[in-house]
Amino acid sequence: MKVKRSLCIASDLSELERLHDAVAELGEAGDWPPDLVYQVDLVLEELIVNTVNYGYDDDARHEIEVTLISDEDVFTVEIIDDGHAFNPLEDAPEPDLDLGIEDRPIGGLGIHLMRVMMDDVHYRREQNKNHLTLVKRRNG
Amino acid sequence: MEIKTQRENGILIANVNGRVDSANAREFENVLSSAISDDDTCVVVDFGGLSYISSSGLRVILLVAKSLRNRNAEFALCSLSGPIGEVFKISGFDKIISIYDSQAEACAALGG
After folding, report:
1. What ipTM was predicted for this assembly?
2. A contacts of B19 (beta carbons < 8 Å)
3. Angle, vertex CA A44, rays to CA B89 and CA A85, nearest 5
4. How confident is residue A140, by pLDDT bands cut at 50, 70 and 90?
5. Which of A6, A76, B60, B74 is the most buried (most CB within 10 A)?
6. According to the model, what pLDDT value does residue B42 have?
7. Under CATH, to which class is A3-137 assigned?
8. Are the Cβ atoms of A16 and B22 closer than 8 angstroms?
9. Helical H runs in B2-96?
10. Which sequence spans correspond to the domains of chain B?
11. Sorting pLDDT into bands at 50, 70 and 90, what band is A139?
12. pTM for this prediction
């Protein structure tokens, strides 16, 4: 059974709770394993936070469209924002995970978590908007 | 998110419950940092009651770990659930921070 939720959120961290609730709701509706729902929840947060913190030059209220789709074997998240062009597959450096504790920089892990946790990530820039699609497979 | 602390045999134990995300990571940082006194030489953070943590929470753990390392205090985490342990592993934190299955094991390792 296909279940879809579309949310239009403000570019503000206070919206995270609403996103977490929606992911949890779809996770339950599609009977997804809790570990997988956790990863979808986390990766969505990482990307939204990235956009809210670094995506805009002004303090204006921007809208971010988030669509969650739970299908038979695939959990899909689509994010559309009007922030700076940012392709998380190419525009973020890989962190050096072999550095010792003194040398490890603070931050820079969110996009790495996305790359490892998601089965597929697609990015395109269209009409001055970032379109990002995250795919997590039930048997990924 | 809630943090309860106690001191046992010279070890500060901080039990973290609930969720740590980008919306409350600053609060997590403030509460955890102020719970650790400059005199504490052994600190265990117990994540047994933690249901969720994102990279914003990892950032706080790394800051605390660095600051304790700077003054030669010992630091360990324990009782991470499956998905939370996975987040630490993917981030490579399991290589730079001691992680134990239980609070008893963490305390034995630090105190013993």
Report:
1. 0.94
2. 20
3. 110
4. confident
5. B60
6. 97
7. alpha beta
8. yes
9. 25-35, 55-70, 82-90
10. 2-111
11. confident
12. 0.96
